[in-house]
Design a protein that fits this description.
alpha+beta; five-stranded antiparallel beta sheet; about 35% helix; 2 domains; seven-stranded antiparallel beta sheet
């Protein structure tokens, strides 16, 4: 196999002219900063979650098969340069952007932290090193997609989110938001990349409480630790000064907790044992 490239989490290899192998690593990144420490078994969880979700969702996707505990084979396709984010709760960057007046929410929206939105909203971003939120007019102005494609992506992304919400709810979790990626395969828009705890926020229902930071069974656990310890601000300050942010050393307890929560989420959602 021919090595193609390394992303934040995956290494990509060409299998043949029509397929690619994704090798999931234990690497982790947050706020666009890559950490030097790994999260044990994270790659295995991401790989098997990708297989689970692609098989569960009825939308056409590029998944072919799982090749090992950390590898899947997918069909080659041309990815669309847009990340399709669906938000179901008032949380994350949506809060700060709303406070700055950068996003307008429907009248009657509850703007207490972690409140459920009246309806899921489509909140896409550019697909780049530092993703930038966009709306329909901006996406069309930047020639990222056509108007027809945008309308399809919006409706399909929300439909996928609602389907996943039902599955997640039955397992005792809340799906706060979701990031999806799509590409063109034989001229048709097709679900791609992967779906797992690096692409969504997952909260346990039994500890959910509006107005508070939620218990995270996803990468948010690392983001919360960084924010609480001033590292998120430090990253922003470094970038403003033209410096590349340096990742701090994650405490062993945090690494251990992330591994355990990734595994717990997988086993509860899929009813499979790792």
């Amino acid at each position: 196999m021919k090595f193609l490239t390394s992303g934040k989490v995956k290494d990509l290899y060409e299998v043949d002219e029509s397929s690619i192998l994704f090798k999931f690593s234990d690497r982790v990144s947050a706020f666009d900063v890559k950490f030097k420490q790994d999260i044990p078994r994270k790659g295995e969880v991401l790989c098997k979650f990708a297989e689970f979700w692609f098989n569960e969702l009825s939308v056409p996707n590029h998944f072919v098969k799982r090749a090992s505990d950390t590898e899947i084979v997918v069909k080659k396709m041309k990815m669309l340069p847009i990340e399709c984010v669906v938000r179901g709760y008032f949380y994350g960057s949506l809060v700060s952007r709303w406070k700055k007046g950068e996003v307008i929410l429907p009248e009657g929206t509850n703007t207490i932290l972690a409140a459920k939105l009246l309806e899921p909203i489509f909140d896409p971003t550019t697909k780049s090193e530092h993703d930038v939120p966009i709306n329909k007019s901006k996406a069309l102005e930047m020639n990222l997609v056509t108007e027809e494609q945008y309308v399809w992506l919006e409706q399909t992304s929300i439909d996928i989110y609602k389907k996943m919400v039902k599955i997640v709810d039955a397992a005792g979790f809340i799906l706060a938001d979701l990031k999806l990626e799509f590409g063109l395969l034989d001229g048709k828009i097709t679900l791609g990349d992967s779906i797992g705890p690096d692409e969504y926020r997952l909260w346990p229902k039994d500890s959910f409480e509006i107005g508070k930071i939620q218990e995270a069974y996803d990468k948010q656990l690392l983001r919360d630790w960084l924010t609480a310890n001033g590292y998120q601000k430090q990253f922003d300050d470094d970038r403003d000064a033209g410096r590349e942010p340096t990742p701090p050393i994650m405490p062993f307890e945090l690494i251990q907790k992330m591994t355990q929560r990734y595994i717990t989420a997988y086993e509860k959602l899929t009813r499979n044992t790792l």
